[in-house]
């Protein structure tokens, strides 16, 4: 395939008109990006270090500090024009060491331990835990209909499953996640004593999936945990047989004072339009379990790889290309917010920001959020250049959490779109580890981002 | 996404002209296929049984017999119009119990064991093994240039790696596999005593990848093994430092008499054109290591799922739909050959055959081999119906080993095309096990095949 493509392109350079010839140059350049990434890519070995030697790295943790220093050193080695840290104060929540949950006082089962994980940001239970009856609901609406009388003093169990019929699993996640983010406060308002949430997962297993919750202002703050999908099925089944069974929950997470941390930024200065900035980024922090491999070690190493590929091809971009490793995406978004604040204050002009935060799986395309139709059409015009690499999904569903705060009329916010089937098997679990990442899939992702950056740099957006 | 699609389609049914309305009916029908597969699909649990309870199942083995009986019973349960076994005599090669290889008599290393696997069909070494110097080559051409003088009495080490720059890994496999299939005979002709082949692998690890060899008529038959990619790198490095080092190889595989086995066939009779047959198939046999999960348990359960989905939707096909689980794809192709022979003898008219034998990964499209341009264009006209499910790669590179013998001017030979990045990490290794298969990816594959069968059945091809 490679050989015939090269032949075609050489013929093109000799006898086709200018536009076609430019396209053939682009096609050759992009082919070279992929060749390099697939044969000499370094993201996989970088990710091995980040996940295996540093590991889980929640904001404020010593490991998050190690990740900052590691990312700085990795980019320092690359001979970029500038590598710097951007200060940002981050929240510091710790899980504690007493996470325990069990079904107790049931007529039909002896005490039965179940796997749970405190939701990020949850308050603790009393030191000896709490024990209460359980009320199961499928949604916040259903909870509200039950009302205070039926909820008061109970543990609310949100058990709406992931909708498996979505082809893109992120859509299923979005359809389930309100139970985790808003459920605890809504239950608290009705007098519940705790919340148990079914994991937002595409598979059935024993791993609970954690994730952030948002306590609403003024609502009582009650402890909240995620239960594994298998655990949720068991609990639901037992409740049908014995609706007076009780659930015991004990945990001691706590909030500590904010910690000084950093976004880590590397930059190649533009040769013609240095004031126009293209960002590629991922987030350096992860949850405190597993290794933060697909979420989002992969996005970090892919972003660095974009700069490394440019350097190693001797490519001098017209515009300024920045890799940003954001801090605190998981439980605060302080890094993304700070980056946009500083950019605004300094009057920086971002023309595009590409975020990789959906796992290091086989590339399928890009979502491109822009207020300008011409911008989207320009991106669409590159489809033929990207399709040979499996990048068929070019649509308007762009954006990303960390680049979101950059939003204005001039910048295209672009989400890198890898295949989504496996992501929510491991997302926010102890199972998000290096061995779940495939080398070729990861390197293809970095190459895909590099190819898009090349086109945006050359033609603007 | 689902909801908006449904709305769109309902609107379409009410006010669009006939062609568009038919397309919307198709779109609804296909959506229902995927919904069912993703929520009630049975392939994953079927595959768990085949891989975990039956396991590796080389032709002629007791496990192959178990797989035949299992497939027959599975299809029997489905209430098909006909389930039957098609007799086929298969070769029976066994690996033996003495596979051992080591680098010996080297100036720079003490005896160092390396992981190898006899190639399927290889003859044995003498009972005490053989020991010889090693000559490393990158290709059969290079071997021929060395000539008898430099090869005689030696072990030939084919070490051309997988070309990582291919985006579709199957292309890299095809570019490397001649070393394994023809290398042993070419080396034998020049007086070599054995062959060691670098594994056709996309990753670097300690697992050797086996696979079939073809002894040429009249050429000396010498023992041949695959060495893991890590092992090959070590051997190559040591050879550079000490080109007189010796390699010891000991193994006792053998050929036993042919065994009676079966293709397993299930069928739903066509309501309007029962004489026109559409086949979906995979192969039931596997190599004798690992569990034959992606190669090709997945193809078997997906093929059965196509029929099951039709049944469970109450869909009555116009044409006859057959799921065929072929026997002996790996080391003889006797099942595929027999199936085509019988079809020809009975004057059966096959209009399309779809083979799934590239792993149970996320679907990306179909390769459609046909002698008729109109047939290909018809398939291409369905692109918009398939694209929402990630099926963008519709091209002419169709076919498959088992359906190959069906080739004539009337039948379209179609290869199901899953994502290829992970396949050659585990292909033909002890690592091809159930845990490498993702439930959603697998079920999406069966649904994709069912969607294509639906369109071919409805519109012909």
TrEMBL record, chains A, B:
Protein localization: Endoplasmic reticulum; Golgi apparatus; Lysosome; Secreted
Keyword Endoplasmic reticulum: yes
GO terms under biological process: proteolysis
Quaternary data: Homodimer. The monomeric form is inactive while the homodimer is active.
GO annotation, cellular component aspect: extracellular region; lysosome
Sequence ranges assigned to domain Peptidase M28 in this UniProt record: 263-450
GO molecular function: carboxypeptidase activity; metal ion binding; metallodipeptidase activity
Signal sequence annotation: 1-22
Alphabetic keyword roster: Carboxypeptidase, Endoplasmic reticulum, Glycoprotein, Golgi apparatus, Hydrolase, Lysosome, Metal-binding, Metalloprotease, Protease, Secreted, Signal, Zinc, Zymogen
Name of protein: Carboxypeptidase Q
PANTHER family for the chain: CARBOXYPEPTIDASE Q (PTHR12053:SF3), PROTEASE FAMILY M28 PLASMA GLUTAMATE CARBOXYPEPTIDASE-RELATED (PTHR12053)
Main localization of the protein described in the UniProt heading: endoplasmic reticulum
Ranges that cross the membrane: none
Classification via Gene3D superfamilies: 3.50.30.30, Zn peptidases
């Amino acid at each position: 395939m490679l050989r015939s493509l090269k032949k075609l392109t050489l013929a093109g350079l000799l006898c086709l008109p200018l536009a076609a010839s430019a396209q053939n140059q682009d096609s050759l350049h992009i082919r070279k990006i992929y060749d390099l990434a697939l044969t000499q890519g370094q993201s996989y070995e970088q990710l091995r270090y980040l996940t295996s030697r540093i590991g889980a790295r929640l904001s404020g943790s010593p490991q998050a500090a190690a990740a900052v220093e590691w990312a700085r050193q990795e980019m320092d080695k690359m001979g970029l024009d500038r590598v710097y840290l951007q200060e940002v104060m981050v929240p510091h929540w710790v899980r504690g060491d007493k996470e325990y949950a069990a079904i107790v006082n049931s007529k039909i089962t002896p005490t039965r331990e179940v796997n749970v994980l405190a939701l990020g940001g949850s308050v603790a239970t009393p030191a000896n835990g709490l024990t209460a009856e359980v009320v199961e609901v499928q949604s916040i609406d259903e909870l509200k209909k039950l009302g205070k009388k039926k909820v008061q003093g109970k543990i609310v169990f949100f058990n709406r499953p992931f909708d498996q019929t979505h082809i893109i699993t992120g859509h299923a996640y979005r359809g389930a996640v309100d139970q985790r983010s808003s459920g605890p406060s809504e239950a608290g308002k009705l007098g519940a004593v705790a919340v148990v949430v079914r994991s937002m997962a595409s598979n059935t297993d024993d791993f609970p999936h954690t994730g952030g919750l948002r306590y609403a202002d003024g609502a009582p703050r009650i402890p909240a945990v995620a239960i594994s999908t298998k655990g949720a099925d068991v609990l639901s089944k037992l409740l049908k047989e014995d609706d007076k069974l009780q659930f015991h929950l004990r945990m001691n997470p706590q909030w500590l004072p904010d910690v000084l941390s950093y976004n880590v930024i590397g930059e190649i200065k533009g040769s013609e339009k240095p004031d126009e900035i293209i960002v590629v980024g991922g987030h350096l922090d992860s949850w405190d379990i597993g290794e933060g491999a697909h979420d989002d070690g992969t996005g970090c190493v892919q972003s660095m790889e974009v700069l490394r590929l440019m350097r190693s091809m001797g490519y001098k971009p017209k515009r300024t290309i920045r890799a940003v490793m954001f801090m605190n995406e998981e439980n605060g978004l302080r890094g993304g917010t700070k980056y946009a604040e500083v950019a605004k204050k300094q009057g920086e002009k971002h023309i595009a920001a590409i975020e990789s935060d959906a796992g290091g799986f086989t590339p399928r395309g890009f979502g491109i959020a822009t207020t300008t139709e011409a911008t989207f059409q320009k991106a669409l015009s590159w489809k033929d250049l990207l399709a040979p690499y499996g990048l068929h999904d070019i649509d308007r569903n762009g954006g990303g959490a960390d680049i979101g705060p950059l939003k204005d009329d001039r910048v295209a916010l672009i989400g890198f779109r890898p295949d989504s089937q496996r992501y929510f098997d491991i997302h926010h679990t102890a199972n998000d580890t290096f061995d779940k990442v495939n080398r070729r899939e990861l390197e293809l992702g970095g190459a895909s981002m590099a190819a898009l950056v090349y086109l945006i740099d050359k033609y603007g957006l």
